[in-house]
Amino acid sequence: MKPTNVASNSSNGPNSNANLIYNPTFRAVVFQVIAIAALVFFCYTIVNNALSNLDARGIATGFDFLSQEAGFGIGLTLIEYNETFSYGRTFFVGLLNTALVSFLGIILATVIGFLMGIARLSNNWFVSRLAAVYIETFRNIPLLLQIFFWYFAVLQTLPSARQSISLGEAIFLNVRGLYFPAPVFEQGASLVIGAFVIGIIATFATNVWANNRQKLTGQQMPMGRVAVGLILVFPLVVYFLAGSPISADYPVLKGFNFRGGISIIPELAALLIALSIYTASFIAEIVRSGINAVNHGQTEAAMSLGLPRSRTLKLVVIPQALRIIIPPLTSQYLNLTKNSSLAMAIGYPDLVSVFAGTTLNQTGQAIEIIAMTMGVYLTLSLVTSALMNLYNKKVALVER
Fold first, then answer.
1. How many angstroms separate the CA atoms of 311 and 111, rounded?
2. What separation in angstroms does the CA of 241 have from each of 158, 201, 221, 229, 232?
3. Residue 11 belongs to some domain of the structure
4. What is the mean pLDDT of each run of 10 residues along the chain (400 residues)?
5. Please, what's the b/e burial string for 375-392 (b: 16 or more CB within 10 A of its CB; e: otherwise)?
6. By the 8 A CB rule, do 349 and 97 touch?
7. Which DSSP symbol is given to 69?
8. Pair (276, 319) in one structural domain
9. In this structure, are 303 and 160 located in the same domain?
10. Residue 230: closest CA among 205, 210, 200
11. Residues forming beta bridges with residue 247, ordered by sequence position
């Protein structure tokens, strides 16, 4: 008998099944299939039981309620809305209000956080201590209490509309909000808007060209002045050449409130301030730790070449620190977006307040409304993560 035949026969016997069972790859696939099947069965059981209970109580399911008339007003709307619009419209109104406060909050929190993080490392004792007090104070007070503070203790103590704090007879601040002139676009305004858009595009293109030029020659371009010229001066020149086609609609006091212009309701202001300051305190620590992680020899080498401290920070330290800062910074952006749901506590008409609150109470479609609300926050978080991951790949160190 040949040994090769014995080996061949033994591989087809019972031992082959035993070997397959002890194969890590095979077991991993089996366990994953079992886990997915259990999850599907669990979800099916939950949904089936929920639908059965709703049918037993005579509660209709589905999304037909979105076409029904809402019948209630909303204090802040970025799109056209009144009581005659549908519940579907309230969903989009709440969605846009949530996106508005999240977008503005991310911008403000980033600016404040970076400034405070850099100030925390300042050689000036007073500036460094002041930044430390800010960080330790605001990050250790619950966000909800900070929202209440800005809304009830600060904004609700402002004077009435008739006793408004005015700035140049154009901007008014009172308990009802902040009022300032609104732009009125007349014939030819599209030229100015087009010039502004072209200026922004040209600024980005110039910045890319300047960065490539700096890598090749080491020469820098004053992008600050270039941006001012393209984004501000160029549209301003077009504005005057087109005959000033953009005017202003000033707010005017009529009765007990102002009419005309643009108003920022106190609920939006309180929520935006609280979210920005609270999140910025965490971002400041992220920035501080990211800058400290950069080897001090990099700073010494840059300063030995004659670079001032400001340029050393801008050109050497921060670009390297961003590789450490961006991942935890993304988490703070996600937290800010989700924390915006606390707006319900002060009556800001966000998605939770308008759709998951008033609409849910009027329609009783709990499963559909909560599922849609959860889907919105999930989508916003995934989009934010995707954008930040793209930026992270851009600034990441590329190995050669």
1. 18
2. 42, 21, 29, 16, 14
3. yes
4. 48 60 79 91 83 69 86 89 92 94 96 94 92 95 95 92 84 90 88 92 91 81 87 91 88 84 91 96 94 84 79 82 90 94 92 91 87 93 93 72
5. ebbeebbeebeeebeeeb
6. yes
7. B
8. yes
9. yes
10. 200
11. 184
